[in-house]
Amino acid sequence: MGRGAGYLVKALHGAAFVALALAAARPVFAQEPIAVPSGVAVQWFETLRDTQGPNGLTIRFRFIAPDVAGPDYDPDQAGADLEALCNGYVIPRLPEMGPQPAEIVLDLADREVPFGEPNEDAVQFFEAYSVQDGACVWEFY
Length: 141
What we know:
The chain is an alpha+beta fold. The chain has helices at residues 3-25, 78-90; strands at 43-53, 56-64, 103-109, 124-132, 135-139. It holds the Pfam family DUF6497.
C-alpha cells in the first residue's frame, strides 16, 4: 500500500469514528414508552437547556406521541398527560447542581417539529411549570 493510501485509510477510519459518535449523540426512539394518564405511547424527543424565557432560565422537554393527533385522543387530557410527564419524567432529570430553571416548558406533539419552526400540520400541546417542593406547579404559558 502506498503512502497516499495509508493516509486515506486513516482519514476514513477517523471519519467513521466521528460518524458513530454523532449517531450516538442523537435521540434514540427505541426506548420504552413513558406512561401517561391517557394511555397514549409517549417518547422523549429532546431536551433544550440553553433557552432563556421571560422568567429566566428555561428548560424545555419535548415529547412525541403520534396518537395525540388521532380521533380517540381527548385534547382535554393533554394537561393531565403533560403534568404526569413533568412530575414523573422531568423532575428526576433536572440538574441537582448549578443554575436551576425558573421555568420548565413541555411540548407534546404528534411528530418531530424543529424547535421554533411553525408546522400547521402538527398537533402540539404546550404547558409551562415551575418547581416547588420537588413537584411541578402549572404556570400560565
